[in-house]
From TrEMBL:
UniProt cross-references to InterPro entries, sorted A to Z: CorA_cytoplasmic_dom (IPR045861), CorA_TM1_TM2 (IPR045863), MgTranspt_CorA/ZnTranspt_ZntB (IPR002523)
Protein name: Magnesium and cobalt transport protein CorA
Record keywords: Cell membrane, Ion transport, Magnesium, Membrane, Transmembrane, Transmembrane helix, Transport
Family: Belongs to the CorA metal ion transporter (MIT) (TC 1.A.35) family.
UniProt organism field: Corynebacterium amycolatum
C-alpha cells in the first residue's frame, strides 16, 4: 500500500494507522508545523496529521523536527513519506560528513552544527567547541530535520529565525533548507571571529618577554579548531551540488541565496584554516620560548655556581688544617682573605652581568 493511500483513506483503518505511527514517533518528534500560503497554520500536528493536512489543502508543506529517532520511528516516517532506505540509514548515523544525496522524490542534505562555549562545556571545561549533526530531508510536501548532538536551544533559535524569514517559507521546502543552512554557516563565521580574538590573546602572551606561556592551552585550542575544520571544509562541494540541482527542486532565487551562503562558508573555512596555521606556528614559538627560558635559567644557575666557587675554594684551602700555613698567623690574614674573596666575587658579578648571564 502506498504512502499516499494511507493518508487519504478516510475509514477506520486510516485512523488506526495514524494513531499507531504517531505513538511510535512521538518520543522523537520535537515539533511539527503545517505551512500554507507562507503562514504556519494554528494547531498541533504530528507527522501523520501534518502531511494529511497539506494534501487536503493541495498546497504548502509540513515541517517535522526530530531528535535522535530510533530505527522503529524512522521506519514509520519512511513508510509514510516514501523515504529511501539509505535515507533511513543516514538518519540513524551520527557524525557524518556534510554531504548531499539526491533520490527520486526527495533530497538529503547533511550539515554540521557548531556550538561554542568560551568558558568550556559543562562536562569538559577544556572542550569549548562541540559539533552536532543536522540532516535535512526535503520533498515536494515536506521538510524533515533530524538533529544529533545539536543542542535543542540552538535548533529552537534557528527554527524561529527561519519561520520569521518570509522568503524561506514562501519558497517552500527548498527555502527552509536554504534558511537553515544560512543560519548555521553564519554561526561558523561568527564563532571563527570569536576564536580569532582568542588566538590573538595567546599570541600576545607567547611573545610577551616576562610572561610564561602554557603550551597546553594552545594545543587544546588547536584541537578544538581542528574539529571545526572537519565540520566546515567538506561543506563546500555539498553546497555547490545543492546550488546546481534542477529548478523544480531548487528554484533559481534559492540557488542565488545559496551562492551567498557558499561565500560565507568559504570565508569561514579560510579564516579557520588561517587560525589553525597560526596556532601551529604559535606552538613552535612557545616551545622555542620555553627552551630559551630553560637555557637562560641554566646560565643563571651556572653563573651563581661560578660566583660561589671562589669563596668555597678559598675557605677550603684554609680549612685543611696543615701545620705550616703562614697566612694563618698573620695579624691581618683573615681580613686580607675576605678582601680577596670580595674583589674576585665582585669582578665575576660585573663580568657575568656584562655578558647577560645574570
Amino acid at each position: 500500500m502506498s504512502a499516499v493511500s494511507k493518508v487519504t483513506r478516510t475509514n477506520g483503518s486510516s485512523s488506526s494507522v495514524g494513531e499507531t505511527q504517531s505513538a511510535a514517533v512521538s518520543d522523537a518528534l520535537r515539533d511539527c508545523g503545517v505551512y500554507i500560503g507562507g503562514k504556519r497554520l494554528p494547531g498541533t500536528y504530528d507527522h501523520f496529521s501534518g502531511l494529511s493536512e497539506v494534501r487536503n489543502f493541495g498546497e504548502g508543506f509540513t515541517w517535522l523536527s526530530l531528535s535522535r529517532p530510533n530505527a522503529t520511528q524512522m521506519d514509520a516516517i519512511a513508510e509514510l513519506y516514501g523515504l529511501d532506505e539509505l535515507t533511513v540509514e543516514d538518519a540513524l548515523t551520527n557524525r557524518q560528513r556534510p554531504k548531499i544525496e539526491i533520490h527520486d522524490d526527495h533530497v538529503v542534505f547533511v550539515i554540521r552544527s557548531i556550538h561554542y562555549s568560551p568558558e568550556g562545556l559543562a562536562d569538559d571545561e577544556n572542550e569549548i567547541i562541540r559539533s552536532g549533526q543536522l540532516m535535512i530531508v526535503i520533498g515536494q510536501e515536506y521538510v524533515i530535520t533530524i538533529r544529533m548532538g545539536m543542542p535543542s536551544s540552538d535548533m529552537q533559535r534557528i527554527s524561529a529565525r527561519v519561520e520569521n524569514t518570509t522568503d524561506a517559507i514562501d519558497y517552500g521546502p527548498a527555502g527552509v533548507l536554504w534558511a537553515l543552512t544560512d543560519n548555521l554557516v553564519d554561526a561558523y563565521l561568527r564563532i571563527a571571529l570569536q576564536l580569532e580574538d582568542r588566538v590573538e590573546i595567546m599570541e600576545d602572551a607567547v611573545f610577551e618577554p616576562n610572561l610564561v606561556s602554557d603550551i597546553e592551552d594552545i594545543y587544546i585550542l588547536k584541537r578544538e579548531i581542528l574539529e571545526m575544520r572537519h565540520a566546515i571544509d567538506p561543506l563546500t562541494p555539498a553546497l555547490r551540488s545543492l546550488m546546481n540541482l534542477r529548478e523544480d527542486i531548487m528554484p533559481k532565487d534559492v540557488s542565488r541565496y545559496l551562492s551567498d551562503v557558499l561565500d560565507h562558508q568559504l570565508a569561514a573555512a579560510d579564516l579557520v584554516a588561517g587560525l589553525d596555521e597560526r596556532l601551529s606556528s604559535l606552538i613552535d614559538a612557545a616551545a622555542v620560548k620555553i627552551q630559551l627560558q630553560q637555557n637562560q635559567d641554566m646560565r643563571t644557575i651556572s653563573a651563581y655556581a661560578a660566583i660561589l666557587a671562589v669563596p668555597t675554594a678559598l675557605a677550603g684551602i684554609y680549612g685543611m688544617n696543615f701545620d705550616r700555613m703562614p697566612e694563618l698567623h698573620w695579624e691581618y690574614g683573615y681580613f686580607i682573605v675576605l678582601a680577596i674573596m670580595f674583589i674576585i666575587v665582585a669582578f665575576l658579578v660585573w663580568l657575568l652581568r656584562r655578558n647577560k648571564w645574570l
